[in-house]
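thread: overnight batch results

M.L. [08:02]
morning all. the overnight job finished for the chain we discussed friday. pasting input first so we're all looking at the same thing
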Amino acid sequence: MKIMWGDLTEEEQTALKRMNRGRYPAISKELAERLVFLGLAEMRPHGAGINRTGRELVINTLLGARFE
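M.L. [08:03]
and the structure it wrote out:
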């Protein structure tokens, strides 16, 4: 199942954008687990981090907004 930006809550979108910039230690455990479940993040030794799929979603969304 492919996740689209509009499928995410505002909180999930914000978390992904922050994770795209680097470590996001303030993310809640529940939100991190949700993003992992959706296939947009992965668990790492220092907490959840954005994965390739999540990064592509964020970048494509941000680039799409620039061209509209």
